[in-house]
TrEMBL record:
Protein name from the UniProt record: NADH-ubiquinone oxidoreductase chain 2
Transmembrane segments: 57-81, 93-115, 152-170, 191-219, 239-262, 274-294, 326-347
Domain NADH:quinone oxidoreductase/Mrp antiporter transmembrane: from-to ranges: 23-288
Catalytic activity: a ubiquinone + NADH + 5 H(+)(in) = a ubiquinol + NAD(+) + 4 H(+)(out)
UniProt-annotated location(s): Mitochondrion inner membrane
The keyword tRNA-binding is annotated on this UniProt entry: no
Lineage summary: Eukaryota, Metazoa, Chordata, Craniata, Vertebrata
Species name: Gymnothorax monostigma
């Protein structure tokens, strides 16, 4: 892709997200989301592969439907109550429709079916953008909308996302689909606590972005996109394989890694809100996700690829990729648990 075209598209991605962040009017927020959508579609289809074009087409259709539903809901609210302000969306029908449209945009269950298929058709770099940056603007709107959304709707979306994200990833062999179901499950954890402690949602989103970025960059470095190719990672780069394995366990929420922090605090908050049953169900749903993370770790570190030579390979390709952000992201993904009190003090 031409560098100037790439610069314009990346700048448009930043502009769309910034417009949505800064808006207080639903029409302006909708416009920012549309700029975001139109900017990432050329990035999706840049390799001219049939799967990439199919993914871009599916993404465009789903995002267009979600945007139309959101605009219809905002217009209905303005028609009935005379308010376009984001935090004044109070009509129950308009609020529910807007929440469903935003859930469709980020891939929350039960509107999640497009996400694994779209992510599977993309390369790892564009998949990283879709899994992290593209969630910022819709989540900012969900954060502002949450006080007016019915509690039962958020509970249903959160629980179903956590379970579907766990169940869906159990029988997958493609890493991008596994990361898509991981995204669905993590979004469910964020939504379930949004009504009670919005700062915990921000904390979970921040840590999810750091951990997912680490995994995508590590897989990009070792050129691995399926479960079968993970077995060769250990012989090529043992240190990177170890870091990736620990990051997977952090995504699963095992202590003493960073990913334990949001799950621990969300379960604590749900218990404080006299919702022990919901907390128990969410903890059980986390075990489903943990299973496929452990399966990835097993394939990466406890198996070896087919090899007729028992000695180490006497040669290595010299890497030509720049991985400067990877060590920083990996350190944050693994070692931030002792900083929990400081982070919560900054967020509150």
């Amino acid at each position: 892709m031409n560098p100037w075209v790439l610069f314009i598209l990346i700048a448009s991605l930043g502009l769309g997200t910034t417009i949505t962040f800064a808006s207080s009017h639903w029409f302006l927020a909708w416009m920012g989301l549309e700029i975001n959508t139109l900017a990432i579609i050329p990035l999706m289809a840049q390799h001219h592969h049939p799967r990439a074009v199919e993914a871009a087409t599916k993404y465009f259709l789903v995002q267009a439907a979600a945007a139309a539903l959101m605009l219809f809901a905002a217009t209905s609210n303005a028609w009935m109550l005379g308010e376009w302000h984001i935090q004044q969306l109070t009509h129950p029908l308009a609020t529910a429709a807007t929440m469903i449209s935003l859930a469709m945009k980020v891939g929350l269950a039960p509107t999640h079916l497009w996400l694994p298929e779209v992510l599977q058709g993309l390369d790892l770099t564009t998949g990283l953008v879709l899994s992290t940056w593209q969630k910022l603007a819709p989540m900012a709107l969900i954060y502002q909308l949450a006080p007016n959304v019915d509690h039962s709707l958020l509970l249903i979306i959160g629980l179903s996302s956590a379970f579907i994200g766990g169940w869906g990833g159990l029988n997958q062999t493609q890493l991008r689909k596994i990361l898509a179901y991981s995204s669905i499950a993590h979004m469910g954890w964020m939504i379930i606590v949004l009504k009670y402690a919005p700062t915990l949602m921000l904390l979970s989103l921040m840590i999810y972005i750091v951990m997912t970025s680490t995994v995508f960059m590590a897989l990009k470095t070792v050129s691995s996109t399926s479960l079968a190719t993970l077995a060769t990672v250990w012989t090529k780069s043992p240190i990177l394989a170890t870091i990736t394995m620990l990051t997977m366990l952090s995504l699963g929420g095992l202590p003493p890694l960073t990913g334990f922090m949001p799950k621990w605090m969300i379960l604590q908050e749900l218990t404080k809100q006299t919702l022990p049953t919901t907390a128990t169900i969410m903890a059980l749903a986390a075990l489903l996700s943990l299973f496929f993370y452990l399966r990835l770790c097993y394939n990466m570190t406890l198996t070896s690829g087919p090899n007729t030579n028992n000695n180490k390979a006497p040669w290595r390709f010299k890497t030509t990729t720049t991985i400067t952000p990877l060590p920083i992201m990996a350190t944050m993904s693994l070692m931030m648990l002792p900083l929990t009190p400081t982070i919560m003090a900054l967020l509150t």
